[in-house]
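Why does this matter for the project? Reviewers at the last site visit asked to see concrete outputs rather than summary tables. In response, this paragraph embeds two records directly. Each consists of the residue sequence and, immediately after it, the corresponding structure tokens. Nothing has been edited or filtered.
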Amino acid sequence: MKFLLFLAILLLAVWLWRSGRRSDSRSDQAAAPPPPGPQAMVRCAHCGVHLPHGEAIVGRIGLYCSSEHRQNAEP
């Protein structure tokens, strides 16, 4: 009889431990920010290299990959 009581307590402890781990992993996943979405690719007006639109430098004539290329292409 003591063995059955010990087994029941052990199973209850394992079940509680596993359910606690599941809720922790779910809260970690909910707290993580979503990955950034795809960005449009643009071409540098000076050298022709492609880069994400968010990293491009805006000039009067077009978009550039660096400020040096903007200065070289625009008078």
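We now turn to the second protein, recorded in exactly the same manner.
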Amino acid sequence: MIEVRFHGRGGQGTVVASIILAKALFESGFYVQSFPLFGVERRGAPVEAYLRWDSKKILVRTNVYNPNHVVVMDATLLQNIDITSGLKPGGWILLNMPQGELNVNFPGYRVALVDATQIARKHGLGTRTHPIVNTAMVGAFARVFGVPDLSALKRVIMEEIPVKPDKNVDAAKEAFEEVSFIDEVKAIG
């Protein structure tokens, strides 16, 4: 079983991203679970969502305490939240961050970057000051993890996203292509 914890802020589509991925993974033949954890329910407040998938039935019904991987929808969360808390050694950290701006060391983890914010702005998703990055991040997710299939992801986005569905699909495809894989993360200073 693979478990993923998503970190984001209210209004970025963090919970919707986990739902889109769960539905696309289900279409791809996996058993899935997706659920959110809310604190203060307001725009900009930290939000967590969880995703599990497996080729056999999932009987666990708890929060994800030791994820295999972490997805960070907003890099400013790195200042306040230990995104590696409980993260299994060797796990992926998928960050919404432009390449070249990473100045944090994540020893023992693999890191992938995508500038989902810029991609969302380019496709007119959300506003300039509050871009909605969820579909870009699910496209990057598909590239990093090799699942779900892009055709399943496209179908689910078209079904689940009522506003600008074509632009959201385009953002997912662009993010899939634009992911950067970091071999070695250098420490600050």
